[in-house]
Amino acid sequence: MNYIAQSWKALLVTAALTLPTLAFAADPAMMKDGMMVDHKGMTLYTFDKDTGGKSVCTGECAEYWPPLKAEAGAKAEGKWTVIKRDDGTMQWAFDGKPLYYFQKDKAPGEMKGDKMKDVWHVVRELFNGQRNP
Asked: What is the pLDDT of residues 26-45, one digit of tens each?
């Protein structure tokens, strides 16, 4: 085997080993159409009663507002953090606010939980550090 073929094989092996780890390094959610959604397009919410990077939505609340779960080994980066819930599971938080889904949102882009009881809010793009109304 010549030098070029060996180099090409080494490059392919390196790429095969590196690319899966890069895929996991992606943010757990993104901004789309002015709101934060997961990679399936499902809307994410914050809860005004959460403080200090801690989720207080447990039990029945978490059935209606399931947390955006963080997988084992998930790493905090930038404004993204991983918090430990009272039940021991891990949850993603953005800018210190734990993130949730709403049980009644069934399709990507739905936001039926926005402003629910004036304490649940769709995560919207921030402009100059202020939440976009």
From this structure: 789 999 999 999 999 999 99
Q: Please state, in angstroms and rounded to a whole number, the distance separating the CA atoms of residues 1 and 72.
A: 42
The tens digit of pLDDT for each residue in 59-86 reads 999 999 999 999 989 999 999 999 999 9
User: What is the b/e burial string over 65-101, where b = at least 16 CB atoms within 10 angstroms of the residue's CB?
Assistant: bebbebeeebeeeeebbbbebeeeebbbbbeebbbbb
What string of DSSP letters covers 104-128?
Answer: T--STT--TTTTGGGTEEE-B-EET
Q: What is the pTM of this model?
A: 0.77
- Compute the distance between CA of residue 83 and CA of residue 96 in angstroms, rounded to an integer: 9
- The span from the first CA to the last CA of the chain, in angstroms, equals 63
Residue spans of the domains in the chain: they are: 27-131
